[in-house]
Structure formats: structure tokens, C-alpha cells
Hints:
This protein has about 400 residues and is α/β, with parallel strands linked by helices.
Amino acid sequence: xxxxxxxxxxxxxxxxxxxxxxxxxxxxxxxxxxxxxxxxxxxxxxxxxxxxxxxxxxxxxxxxxxxxxxxxxxxxxxxxxxxxxxxxxxxxxxxxxxxxxxxxxxxxxxxxxxxxxxxxxxxxxxxxxxxxxxxxxxxxxxxxxxxxxxxxxxxxxxxxxxxxxxxxxxxxxxxxxxxxxxxxxxxxxxxxxxxxxxxxxxxxxxxxxxxxxxxxxxxxxxxxxxxxxxxxxxxxxxxxxxxxxxxxxxxxxxxxxxxxxxxxxxxxxxxxxxxxxxxxxxxxxxxxxxxxxxxxxxxxxxxxxxxxxxxxxxxxxxxxxxxxxxxxxxxxxxxxxxxxxxxxxxxxxxxxxxxxxxxxxxxxxxxxxxxxxxxxxxxxxxxxxxxxxxxxxxxxxxxxxx
Length: 402
């Protein structure tokens, strides 16, 4: 029996990778299959140490590729096991085919994605191109602003994925290096409390239930394939409610509430920034600075749940403010489209609500390019110009060498 290491709430200096590995230790999955890739590598090294030291009961499978890692997780989950993995950038791209298999087979796999740029040119640093490239593969997608959120989100992801109303895999993203390798204060929960919160997996039609044999992964012809996809969409829509319920349960158990979005000083905001990931922290600092020094009322909407996208939550927050213009920040490109992927989702949210606000698209942080206080201030200035009716480029690259 594995030892109980953390018996009370503890605060530690951890990196995002350390926090994610700690969450996996407490979850104690049946199977973990992974292949090392920067900046995810040390996450799996930390977890491999837990395995070697007998701190988990996990069957750890060091495979030869990311395609194999997800394939092993698919097999393990189909057999009735609780399966987890982690990857980054090109690794997520390599397992792209199997992502659709995992979601199409309705397998509650949980994966950390340490968000990294895609080649070419080769770049090992952080942006969200990898996750955005997989956004239509049927996975529930959560993003973390910091190491503690990554820890909390992974614990919640188990309950979200395994809920009978969803039964969909979940990927939890954190920005490469900025979160994965930076040390910050993290609140760790007691082992027993985490174990009680996630509960036991109740597998649906496991392959190893030989008394009730079923077929997994069959061929679906033209007369049935669409019905599978329709059911996946319904499950994804169900996930919207499940994510909120799990967030409320997490608050009740541990005193910290998680919702689909986080709003920061939007109530009286004239200008709103919409951001995913670690840059939200920088934006909060800038918002406080501008309000104090210049009286400029800026607010922030941080997207935590990206799939299913919380269209109505976003619009409720915007409409409850004094919004005159919006700046949408994308850490990924969508070549040939207008703006980045988040920009497109915000435009859709406006259409669904029948509202229109002036919007400016910002592409930032590609390949790990720094985005500091000055760059956020520069973006806010352009949003203010847009609100004043001045001509502003539709797509703006922050901190671009020109």
C-alpha cells in the first residue's frame, strides 16, 4: 500500500511540472504512458521517481513515441483503467490521430499539455499552437494561469472526464517554461482529501469484463457514423454543466472556486482584455497599474474552459460592464482566418447574443516571445483608440521585430 505523504494543506515552492506530477501522484492512476519531450520532460521524470520509490501503484509505460503513448492510454482506459499522460508541442501533434480515437471511444483519459510552439522553424518554447491545433478533436480543454491552477485543474479533470454525462477525455494546458519551469507558491491538498474528491473510477463496458463482452472501436459505416458524432457533441455540451458542478464541489471541499471564466475588475471596465493562460497574470498587474496611475478602467476575462467554449459566460461578463472595446489575445495563429482562434470564438459569442463591440486581435508570445507590462499597455492603447473610432489594424503582433 502506498504511503500517505501529505496529511494537511501544505504550501510549497513548486514549478508547474512539479505541481502536475504531485497531482498525478495523489490521483494514483492505474496506467501512465508517456514519451519525454521538452518542456514536459521533467514532469514525467518527477512522476517516474514516484513510481520507482513506490509512492504510486501506477503501471508506468515509457513508450517509443507520443502516438504510442496515447494508444497505450486508449487501451488502458478501454480495459477499465484510470489512465493519464502528458505531452507538449510536436508530441501533441504526433498523437493527433489518436486524440480523435480517445474522444470517439468516450474514454476518460486526462492529459497535461505543456503548451509549446510547433515547427518549423524548430522552437522548444511556449505558445498555444499545439492545443489550438487539436481544439476540434473532441477533448474537453482547460487552461491554467499558474502552477497551482494546473494542480487544481488536474484533480478536477478526473471528475469531469469520468462523469457519466460526459465520458470524454480532458487536456489541461499550461504555458511551457513560464509555468512549467518557474517556481512559485503552490497549495497542496492532503492525499486523503484528493482521493475522496476524485472517488473510484466506474468503468463503462470495460474490455476486461469477460462475462459481458463488447466491441470497442468498431468500423462505423455511412448509416451510423454521424450518430456517434452527434452523441459526442451532446456529451461536450453536457460537460459545460459538469465542469461548473465540479468547480462548485471543489470550492465546497477546498475553499477555492473555479468557473468557466475568471473576471477581473470588469464590473466598471470601459475596456476588456480576453486572455488564456499565464499572460492573464501580467494583464492583472497592468490593469491595477493603469487604474491607480491614470484612472483608466480596464478589466480582464480569463478563459479557463476553452472547450466547450463558454459563449454565454463571456457575453454576460461583457454586457455587465461599461465595455466600449475589447482586446482579444491569441498565443496561436490561424493562417488565412481573421484573427486567432480565441478571436473567432469571441466573434461567435457576440453573434449568438446579437451584440457587437469593437474588437482588436492581438497575436503574441509565439515561440516563447516575451510579453511584458509594456506590451500589454501598448495593446490597451490600441483598444482605446478603437473605442474612440480611430483606425486600428485588425490583427496586431505584440513585441514583433520590425
